[in-house]
Queue: 2 jobs
Job 1
Amino acid sequence: MIANSILETGVADCHPASAPDYAPLDELRALQISRLHAVVLRAWKNVKLFRDRLDQRGISPRDIASLEDIRKLPFTVKSDLRDTYPFGLFASPMKDVVRLHVSSGTTGKPIVVSYTQEDINVWTSVMVRCFAGCGLHRGDILQNAYGYGLFTGGLGAHYGAEGLGATVVPTSGGNADRQIMLLKDFGVTAICCTPTYFLHLIDRAAELGVDFKSLPLRTGVFGAEPWTESMRAHIQRASSVEAFDIYGLSEIIGPGVGCECRRHDGLHIFEDHFYPEIIDPETGEPQPDGVEGELVLTTLSKQAMPMIRYRTRDITMILPGRCECGRTLRRIGRIGRRSDDMLIIRGVNVFPSQVESALLQIEGTLPNYQIHLTREQGLDQMEVQVEVTPNMFNDKIGALQGLHQKIQSALDHVLGIRVRVALVEAHSLERSQGKAKRVIDRRAE
Amino acid sequence: MKIQQISLFVENKPGHIATPARLLAEQGFGIRALYLADTQQYGIVRLIVAESQKAAALLESHGFVVKVTEVLAVEVADRPGGLADILDALDGSGINIEYMYAFPYLREGKAILIFRFNDSDAAIAYLQKAGINLLASEELLK
């Protein structure tokens, strides 16, 4: 069956780990229902919040007999992770947890996600399937410029690339000149990073007199932020790279929830591990394939931290029909926007509410503020403009500089990324019909 | 002895001092002294005008963030050592100058310096003891 698919399509993008990509649909659905049942039972036994919610609705894990029954289950939302910070949603004892990662929450506190060894193995396997689907294999040299550390991007891609058998160059983010030197000197064939960072590397290489088109680099796996077809066209014009869109989020596992294949017609979701639904973000009602709505994901095999019907806030659709690549996995459309106000800046999630909580710490009252997003030399820049209020104002310049510094460090601390702070005159920020406009995004210009 | 000074927050952009200056002029407030303390991004305009409370209210009603602070105006001989005499009078007092600027105005061969001290009352006592002439608002604004 697997061999047939490959023969039919003639695409040699297969690795032994990719076998489930081509599983017959009846087998896939049977696997999903048995895994769904197991994960619901696991969460019900070990996660108080989940058990209480089922009890309130008079539902027991036994009521989940088919995949459609998933609709009986309550949603999980990002604030649940904050409210149970740090370990309240864990379904494994800490002795079985081998890794913790941290992502930004909606206010001051971050969210924590955990993994058992088995979870890490699943994560590695889905990342192997992503890379294999992009046509990478043993012998490729992959430069991983996602940030290593608390962010899931770096280590997730790293394990996947090693699992594939590729040679990994773990550069992590930053230091564009060194990235370019290594791409060139090592004959790197594939790169992982945010698409805007790759644009930055292209621009910087041009300044350094390095022609990206002459490098052996031919594959780029880009994610951690929304991007567009026009960015893909630009990347593919300015380099010899075939650009792939990869999708994931820490709450579910990190990168590797879904990825494009070489048909570039949507992102295949590894639905043997992550069950996708599309709902109307207003009503919560399920939407049919081909209709846009909010993506909801259930982790079918996660042990340390099962997520049941997690509302991603990402707006997309399940594409109807099968992909020509032969995979039976369903596909979602490219994610272009969100149903909440989350911003993605240089791959890092930022909520305006985080900015508010930082500003509130300064004077105890919230000054009027505005977030300005621009792109300079391919890199996202965020400036927070804060209107100076009478209680913030002091007629000594040193005191104003101290205020400026205080706001700067509060924002750096809460957001985890460097932003610019500008103090502006009262009433100078644009308002629409009296309501403050919080975010001005000029990155697409 | 204390003089009321108006401070305004302004962004360091072309035209941002002109607006409050024009506003005051239109309403007949004569600006006696103006000093700008600035950084690359923003600054503080310090003004001495007659009827400072009214002027501050006018600016506030036009959306400016305004602070009225008390400063001292010191008359000093316009000769070498004029400033040093004042500083000597305060030597050892523990009084700190938060900022100061010279008045761009000469009268009878004397200059006027505006000071903001961390402790105005103590500064008045020390300066008067040393025989340094502090101007009252009426004299300064006449």
Note: Residues 2-69 of chain B form a domain with the VC0802-like fold (CATH 3.30.2130.10).
Job 2
Amino acid sequence: MTANYKPVQPARLFGVHATPRNWHKLVLGLLPFILIIALYAYASHARKLDNPDDKLLPGFSQMVEAMQPLVMQPSPRNGQYVFWADTLSSLTRLALGCSLAFVAALWLGLNMGAFRGLEASASPFITFISMIPPLALLPMLFITLGVDEVGKVALIFIGTFPLMTRDVFIATKAIPREQLVKTLTLGGTQLAYLYRIALPQIMPRALDTFRLSLGAAWLFLIAAEAIASTDGLGYRIFLVRRYLAMDIIIPYVAWITLIGFLLDWALRVLARRLYPWYAGVNSK
Amino acid sequence: MNQNNKLSIEDVYKSYGNKLVLDNIDLKVAAGELCTLVGPSGCGKSTLLRLLLGQEFADAGSIIIDGAPARHPDPHRGIVYQKYSLFPHMTVFDNVMAGSRLSKQAWYLPWKRDKDDEAFAISMLERLRLVDAMRKFPHELSGGMQQRVAIAQALMSKPPLLLMDEPFGALDPDTREQMQIYLMDSPFSSLPTIWTKRVTSARGYWCYHNIIRMTVVKSLQWPGAQKLSAITVWHEKHCQPRKNLARISKPSLNR
């Protein structure tokens, strides 16, 4: 007689063999968020009991109250909704600087990766200038290009361009030589290789790089806005800092984080849609 | 020079540093001839293939393809590699159509449809039993299917000379046989073909006209190593199929 064994149950949460269910993942994923919010609410409440005028940890109702005029009411000075005007001008600078850098990096990196002659001339230079700390250039940019939009966009460009170029260059160079020979023997020209074979193959990787560069771009944007600006999310944070207005700073930081998160997510979805083959090739 | 030769290699030498890899190679391949380079690893099979492709150039001697010296890679020869032959970002159908599109259309415009070539591509995919996989990407296919697509892709542009570098090396024996039957049977059997194998015997590779047996030249440094002749042409009559392959019907080689 065979023993009546129970079917094996896979581990759900603990150990290296664990395969959490989807609702496990959802709950576990939300847990840190809930914890941090609860912790903050508790700390804020505790400080309020001690000192009702505390400015360091404003409660959520205080933040809503402080943000209300910025989000919902036009400013008496120029009739703009401050919060939305800040968001728009910041995003415009970010989009302009990042996309210009992306297009330039894509083109230069692709050509450097494909043409050995250009590589010999441009590669050491790009490697060298990628070592310049972009923020150290900020005074120069403001002096030469002015404190208007151009200087800020230029900072974001300079901050993200060398790294993206190098990454695109490495990705292009990593394409097997066989693909070039294949293209040429099938009757393609050198430019056909560049733009119909190499470019589509590196695009998903380039979008990944773009995504990662957005983090750095935010840094340069906030820095530029903090130093010389008349609007923008970074400008507002540094402006209200003088009044210890944590009830405005915290929602602004949360908003910036949310925008960054959504941009990242949208770019990932876009890359998956446009290049469905990429995930499969990489998993091999 | 014999005008019937699609490929003629004369007195070709190639060395890397002090190491002589190809020592006075002579080889003539006529139209419709299937030629197999066989030899141990390091004997220069792939080097010869790279010279034929124009990826590298010989130190001395001449390589004439279709009446013109071999230069950088161009549509005068097709190539099937063991790996990386297919474009990973294109579906099977687009991969097979790549030759037609790249050679006939401008790179900066969206690909236009070409009814004749598409019908031809589909007929070829049908013969190779790949029609069901037409819209898949290469990474979704097995190794054997990928190799079939790669051969269809190379045959699509009807190159005067088809080169294959260990095209069936990664395949299981059954698939390998099927692929060879297909090649012999294909409407392109008039193409001269060169392929290389990493085996020392001709066993298991029975569809050839010539087997060219290459041996290691001067890379064996132990005392008393003989300098063997660099290249031998083994004609088909010297390489009868072995007993264990008798179950395969041998296609006619003399059409």
Note: The beta strands of chain B are 5-16, 19-30, 34-38, 60-65, 68-69, 77-80, 161-165, 193-197, 210-214, 231-235.
